[in-house]
Design a protein that fits this description.
The complex is a heterotetramer of chains A (790), B (249), C (410) and D (188). Chain A contains 28 helices and 29 strands. By secondary structure, chain A is an alpha/beta fold. Among the domains of chain A are: 126-183 and 395-487 and 522-547, Rossmann fold, CATH 3.40.50; 202-380, Dimethylsulfoxide Reductase, domain 2, CATH 3.40.228; 662-789, Beta Barrel (Barwin-like endoglucanases), CATH 2.40.40. In chain A, the strands form 7 sheets. Chain A has a 7-stranded mixed beta sheet with strand order 5-4-17-16-15-6-7. Chain A has a 7-stranded mixed beta sheet with strand order 24-25-27-26-29-23-28. Chain A is globular. With 249 residues, chain B is an alpha+beta fold. Chain B has one domain: 2-Layer Sandwich (Alpha-Beta Plaits). Chain B is 19% helix and 16% strand. Chain B is built from 7 helices and 10 strands. Chain D is mainly α and 188 residues long. Chain D has a domain at 1-40. Chain D contains 7 helices and 2 strands, in the order αβαααααβα. In chain D, helix 4 crosses helix 5 (93-103). The N and C termini of chain D lie far apart (72 Å). The chains are: A alpha/beta (790), B alpha+beta (249), C mainly alpha (410), D mainly alpha (188). Chains in contact: A-B, A-C, A-D, B-C, B-D. Chains A and B meet through strand 3, helix 3, helix 4, helix 8 and helix 9 of A and helix 1, strand 2, strand 3 and helix 5 of B.
Amino acid sequence: MKLDRRAFVKLIAGGVGGTLLSPLPWKMADDTAIWSQNWFWRPSPERGSATLVNTACQLCPGGCGIRVRLIAKKNAVRIDGNPNHPVNQGGICPLGASGLQYLYGPSRIETPLKQTGQRGDVTTLKPISWDEALDILATKLRAMRQKARGLVCVSGKRQGTVPELFARFLHAYGSPNYVLMPAAADAESLGMFFSQGQSGLPGYDLENAKMIISFGSSYIEGWGAPARMQLAFGNWRSNTKGNRARIVQVETRGSLSSSKADDWLAVTPGTEAALALGLAQVIVSEGYYDRSFVNQYSYGFDEFKRLLQRNYTPEKVAAITGVTREKISALAREFSQTKPAVALSGWGQGRMQGSVYDFLAVQSLNGLVGSLNKPGGVTKKPSVPLAPWPEVVLDAISLEGEKEPRLDVGNEVQSSFPTSLFYNLVKNMNQGKPYSTQMLWVYEANPAHDLADVEPFIEALSNIETVVSFSSFMDETTQLADLVLPGPTYLERLEDVLTPPGLQYPVFGLSTPVLMPRFATIHPGDMLIRLAKSLGGGVASSFPWSDYESALKQRVEGLAQKASGRVADEPGVEPWKGGQGSKLAPNYESFDDLWDKLVEYGCWFDTSGNMPAWDSAFKTPSGKFEFYSQKMRQIGIRGNDITYLPHFEEVEPAGDPGDYPLLLMPYETLIITNGPVANPPFMTKMLFDFQLKGNDCFVDINTKTAANLGLKEGDRVTVQTERGSLEVRVHVSGNARPDVIFIPTGLGHSGFDPYIKGKGVNANAILVAQQDKTTGLASWWGTRVKIYKV
Amino acid sequence: MSGNESGKIRYGMVIDLDKCTGCMTCAVACQQENNVPFREDETKKVRSITWLEVFYLDNGKPYPEHRKAYLPRPCLQCDADPHPPCTFVCPVNATQRDEETGLVAHIPVRCIGCRYCISACSYHARYFNWWDPKWPKAMEEMLTPDVSTRMRGVVEKCTFCVHRLQLAKDKAFVEGRQELEEGEYVPACVEACPAKAMYFGNLADSHSEVAKLAKSPEAFRLLEKLGTEPKVIYLSSQEWIHKLADNVV
Amino acid sequence: MDSALIPEGVKRCSFKAFCLWLLVIFGVIGFGIVGGFFVLWKGLNVTGLNDYFGFGLYITADLAIIALGAGAFFTGFLTYVIGKKELKDIINLAVVVGFICYTGAQLVLLLEIGQPIRGWFSFWHPNVHSMLTEVIFCITCYTIVLVIEFLPLILENRQLDKVPEFHYFSHNLHEIMVVFAATGTFLSFFHQGSLGGLYGVMFARPFAFRTGFFIWPWTFFLFVASAIASGPALTILVTMMVQGITRKKLVRRDAISLLAKVTGFLLAFYLVFKILDTWWWATQTAPSKGMSFGEFFKAPYGMWLLFAEIVVCGIIPAIILLTPKARNDDVLLIVACVLDCAGIVINRFVFTVQNLALPVMPFDHWEIYVPTWTEWAPTVALIAYGALIISLAYRYLPVFPRERELNPID
Amino acid sequence: MTGENKQQSSGLLGWVLFVLGFAGALFVGWIVFPQLLFSTKYQPINYNHSIHQEEAGLSCEDCHFFLEDGTFAGKPKLSTCVECHSEPQGETEDEAKLVSEYVEPEKQIPWISYSRQPDNVFFSHAAHVRMAEMECTDCHQDVSGQTKAPPVKINRLTGYPNGIIKMYVCENCHVRENVSNACDVCHH
């Protein structure tokens, strides 16, 4: 019995046969198929029941209502628009839709940090406990209380109860230096002050307008409330609803706003205001203006008319702007005869300050055609009827502080301006005049990156002993901070979101925590209350609340007492539709009911039916809309007649034209955020490869200019201004005007996470702000530049 | 959907390019809705996964006659008979058209990554996972459980958010309804569009908004001559945009 | 050991020289394995492929070597089915070359797909409509046929042949070889065609799309024709190469000439239809898809490719091969065969890469494909793999039945 | 003769060996292999369906219900348990464990699923239970009246429980019931 080869073969054959008749090979094959599909290292998202939570977006001032989709009540997996919200009606912008990438983003700051080494060295920013952090801050504040004016707070957020608490803290502490980041709103607010005698911002009734002329505003690329503008634009382009409106864009660059307009007037850089005045001249000289308004409710028309006839005839304006006389005349006639029509101002996204005269020129045009405070026109953005807090309790030091000169004021006249003048602050902090800055707070702002003409600001920091950042993210300013007190992100905190820029009806959005804070962060409101209490005295008495929530509720009671306004509990609301005098019956019975509904639906709003009438709207010395501003005179602005009238001021850009033959202009786009947060991965991914390629960003150069300079698509070049130089690549484009180079802003971060860090360059670094001597505003619009191959 | 005599369903999309502001919210909403992965460098566009890609169009004229527009391109869910270009070629049945809805599905776990379908699609609507998808650890919490994550070496593409169809149907079923109302099932891009430039519905239902819009004189489809029968229809009043819809000999 | 394996009555180079030669080959193969390993480990991101070029060098190489491997089935067809006995001289080599081409192609295919561990899904979940399914099935079957055809030759090794079972088995296989030759012919015909169909059916790709007959686009038939018009050319080329390297006459010249003549006829036949197809494509098919012929060619994939493919690598070798005097000249014959093979490589390249470079949407753009070393290395290793198999086969197997007769050892 | 004999015996032996191989392979394939392929896991709490049905008077739907949005809640969340078990109701060890380990620290119970499908499979309970009016027990094991939670067999290769419905089962039923078998009906 030897097991020979044959026998062995038979054993094997039997085995094979048996195996084939057993489930082994078949089950194995099937399971292998499943196994090969598993790839265990790939995340498998947790399942669970889904809920939608309404809240308000705070990534920009746009005031959108958003819904967060939660899985198993803990994982936020989607943000979309709240269909009930009147501002965005279910739509959303790319930044809002990317919000979760901030909540879960890798650049979140998890604990308070203290700089233990050289300022700016991120590796020596060490985690400390909240008690220690707040103790450090309180100790320093106590120590410098005698020099309370040395505390400066920069806020990127212009409205809401938290910025108000910051302002209140500084007031109670004894510093006049609560300063807002610069924006077109500064010029607008000043312009409203000069022409209408009251501070405030314009609110445009765009939903009812039939013709819109936009003077340089990127109306679909982030100007105003971005999602509301997209919605309005969709309606202007609607064939079905009879909402179709005509859009004319006045802008140097071939932006999307230019391309999407019915007509694009490609003006000489910085001459938008001249064109507005040219239109005004035609309207006035041809008698198309609204006589009832001009005759009864305006002041200084004759002086204005004389100026127009003298300086802004179509011929002269054609020479300034490059738009033909015929076009100017035709557009003026169309604008004055289409009702209602409105003109928009505010360059780009409204992130740059701009000139007050530009605003006045455009606003005068609105006045001439009777579009002020009329449906389809422009009004003063209505305020939300919140209840006031008790008065700040002033002690000896804070009483003294009230009298101190503000650091952002350049001269006597400017101290009565209702605006912050940030570039003055930068200058004064740098020079330590009239007094030095001991401590800088930065809240909801990233000036070390976002400030146009950023270099002087960074230099100024070296004169400041302590820089405190309240940011939730490792941004560039936070990198330069000595103490970091991270707040929760907007999805983890309670806060009010007030009427967004440019809106004509009041909105109160409530942002509520949609999930437990991911890290041990403290709400800035609570932080301030705690800090105030630990300082004692008047400061403590000014903060009587137990926490931020009770402070907020106190103000919201104002809404409960109002007889008009609703919580947005149903889709499709159109607060602009009711006409003048329309009211909304409240759908809540008491404060508690209102609060519960606000938490549930996220938004309260009222109609646009409360535009003030012409006879009561203007708080000027004349009680009228002032083409010729007596207010300017009154507060002591010196000059000739033209100074008090809307006019066009040619600003000479910085740099010697011989050395720097071209003009550099920044541009903003909706797909690159310019806010205090850096672009999220979702959005950066969508940049075209002629906007970002690897780590290079592109400047747009006109086809002919590029050919003259011997530059081809994709060439690496240096763009140099007198402020500095940057390395970029060339995109040859029909969007660019000959001899003007366009550079995107918002890139070039050195902070944040690997998804944005080091991508592109920060255009702000080489721009030079041109400050207007009278107003102190940066009326800046371009910088001379030269460009050469690397 | 109601008002449809034949009962046939052909889900389709209409995108009004005149209303489109090029804000790219659709593309962002899509990435979020479908767990589309992202990498640190996404600028090599021929390797970047964007189920809904936005194309840049221009009229080719010099400044200041230059005009541009953005064209969002989801998967066009070709209705060509009997097969779309892509499903026809797949060797492993990883992609098929659901003949009850007209939706072209792609099932990444079945896919072997041969990329034949990528080659067959003239719209570049299909994407290959050149890398394993990776998210920063914390961001894994924001992945939606409705769409499974993919792995390296497989193809993926827009599905018109077909998972939303299932969710909508579930809701209807529990409420005792068999049919969906118009608007109950809408992809994420359409829902997010702030300018309301995107419409979605049943093209086979002559009463639906999309069917009406599709008949507009402003309507066109991409590369009509190929015979792919896309179910995404564009609207534009601009002649130069119409010219870019197809090649002209 | 080495000498015991070498067939009786023939002379081979020294074992040392052979080892040195193998070392070179293994070097190249090793490089290819490293490249292949890189691709498998890191994924296809290490290649030059992208969402434009879903197919690239791997597929070009695969298609080209499969076409060139057609020499095996066609020579088999001529030898066994038609009965051209003089080709028995060359049939073994043709089978070896075919075996190399098909196994090599499958190895590269494994790298090419994104999920190699799911490669078998095409058998487990086949889609019958897909040309690729047909290709995968046919290639797999035909590889098995080639293994069976190769087997008797391996079993004729001096030592293996001593095992009686092997001896009988190989003898029996020889007896029924006509069946395998016929099967191979059938399978090959279909998958060569399906490879063409692969492109021809892409109706959304105007460069590749062709009208056709029933379910088969014209490329189906053109790929069959081009494969049989170039496969034998490779067989001739390899024969000449082996003869050159060994400095021996291994095959009778009339066998080579016969094959060259047949190749010439086939090439001419193919070219007629290729030119007709190109003309129809340029004037009818492409315009119906909205494209003009000129749009198909843009740098670097210019019109020169078409000229090179049809004139330089088509008409010229056809003329040489059809001219008795020319094809009897060794140099001209080699030139013709090289051109013929290059022509088919260009053809497969154009269908694979240029096809995909072409933007179909008017607002789209041309892309250029640049393969990386991880693609080149396995592709080059494929050639080394061929050299390895041929070297081993030549040294240890009676590949050339007439070698002893033609090179008597004195 | 001896040669023949030898051949015969070896032939016989050959067949014996063949049968041996055959039977051995069958044994391995049918008996040993399934044992090796699956691991056994036990639920964190030995849930007693019987006692909940009979003594507490609960119906299946009290814990396994549909949500308003049409999704199926599946296994109950802790909040459902807490409705009755904020304090121990009886004296069983498992209940004590429930209260001390999960209810008090407010920790979800990590139930092991008997039928967890891969994450690319989306099974609609609404379609099957509400529209097709299928019984739960058509797919799931009937646990009503059981006093112990059955152990879960997990496939070591795939990681999925052995109770999951295979795709061909879905497909066959869909064909029978004339329901779409398109991929995206279940996979996304």
